[in-house]
Design a protein that fits this description.
mainly alpha; 3 domains; transmembrane helix; membrane; Serine incorporator; 15 helices; transmembrane; TDE1/TMS
């Protein structure tokens, strides 16, 4: 039950992605029948891209409102026995499905100005979602490194495995950079100075923080987190360059994607869904990473530190009292009473056990991810978004480039911050 709720919400989000995907390309027949939306097209002939954008924004807005309302309704839930958690997070799925459908339909009744305002707000919400993903990535790689180093104290094969992964990641960085120079500085396409600058700057960024991680001041520095972060940064560089318009002469890869564009779209959406689901699970169950609560929250595997009451000890105490009774009838009756009391006590303990992840923050991640899907589907609202490709346009290029540099600088900060502020506790 602990994970089934999260899986169900992930499935609802997946349905929203599929619906957005379909409406992005085939929304014209529906939108043309809605007069208050068509008023926005007065004075010009709307294109299929305009109809798709209108539909995607509204579906994204509906999911944002649904998950946002769930987040607000579950704010402050701390214990498993609280009614809000049982009824809203884990129960009443038929009602929630109906409400989710209603939320998806409701924005089609909203005025155009409100939807356009949401489109602008989605740009900022999407940026926040990307930053959260970066923080999760950095925390994950550091935790992985610490775990394998700890195992290596008992068995050095773990350290050899860590070394092998580090070398593989750095080799991947060099391989990706070679591929990028090949595809995005094609022969006969001129200097392509912008693409050369972006690729070279990404490599220099990777070299910079990898070297920084080896300095004595980087107390938590290690090459493995540096290598995985460098690999992610080069992926972001690739993702930014492949978002360049297909007719741009320096986008050699775009010229080769005629037959592969459909499969590229499918893979991109699946990767996005997996990253969103992982982000929600990771962020929701690790509230200390985002400093939402001063208390240590429970992990997903049910570990909750020191329990408030030991259920087994309570049950054992009741059994001891029962066995100490003198009369056989009294022993039998007391045992029955003990079993009932122990069961009730276990139920009470379970009700007051801390929740294993933050329900409100879980839904907040999905609300921000709904904004991100709108931007992904429409090329961050750019008019040059191509119908048969996902996340194309100069806006996408610069957003991803910015995300790449924020990732590199954020990782560099985690290396130097402990030395600069030795009295503070950093969660990386």
């Amino acid at each position: 039950m602990k994970r089934s709720a999260r899986v169900a919400y992930s499935f609802l989000f997946f349905l929203a992605i599929v619906i957005s995907w379909i409406m992005r390309d085939f929304a014209r027949p529906l939108i043309e029948k809605i007069p208050w939306i068509m008023r926005a097209a007065t004075g010009f002939e709307p294109s299929d891209k305009w109809f798709g954008q209108q539909a995607v924004y509204r579906i994204s807005m509906g999911n944002f409102l649904f998950f946002g309302c769930m987040s607000a309704a579950l704010l402050g839930v701390k214990y498993k026995g609280e009614r809000r958690g049982q009824l809203l997070q884990h129960g009443n799925w038929v009602i929630k499905l109906v409400v989710w459908i209603a939320f998806n339909a409701l924005p089609f009744l909203f005025p155009n100005g409100l939807v356009q305002a949401y489109g602008w707000a989605a740009r900022f919400g999407s940026g926040l979602f990307l930053i959260i993903q970066m923080i999760i990535l950095l925390d994950f790689t550091q935790s992985w490194n610490d775990a394998w180093v700890a195992h290596g104290e008992q068995d050095e094969r773990w350290l050899y495995g860590l070394l092998g992964l580090t070398v593989t990641c750095f080799a991947g960085v060099l391989a990706i950079s070679g591929v990028l120079f090949y595809f995005f500085k094609p022969a006969g396409a001129g200097s392509c100075s912008l693409n050369v600058f972006l690729i070279t700057a990404s490599l220099l960024l990777c070299i910079g923080f990898s070297g920084l991680s080896l300095l004595p001041m980087a107390r938590n520095g290690s090459l493995f987190p540096s290598s995985t972060t460098a690999l992610y940064i080069m992926y972001l560089c690739y993702s930014a360059l492949q978002s360049e318009p297909r007719d741009y002469e320096c986008n050699g890869l775009g010229h080769r994607l005629n037959a592969a564009s459909g499969s590229t779209l499918v893979i991109g959406m699946l990767v996005t869904l997996l990253s969103v689901v992982y982000s929600a699970l990771r962020a929701g169950s690790n509230t200390s990473l985002f400093m939402l609560d001063d208390e240590d929250d429970a992990s997903d595997d049910g570990a909750m530190g020191t329990p408030l009451i030991d259920a087994e000890a309570v049950a054992g105490a009741y059994n001891t009292l029962a066995e100490s009774s003198s009369a056989p009838g009294q022993v039998s009756a007391s045992r029955e009473g003990t079993a009932a009391a122990a069961a009730a006590d276990r139920s009470a303990i379970e009700d007051y056990a801390p929740i294993s992840y933050n329900y409100a923050f879980f839904h907040l991640i999905f609300a921000l991810a709904s904004m991100y899907i709108a931007m992904l589907m429409t090329g961050w609202g750019a008019v040059e978004q191509e119908r048969d490709r996902l996340d194309v346009g100069w806006t996408s290029v610069w957003v991803k480039t910015g995300a790449e540099w924020v990732t590199g600088l954020l990782y560099s900060w985690t290396l130097i911050a402990p030395a600069m502020f030795p009295d503070r506790d950093f969660g990386f």
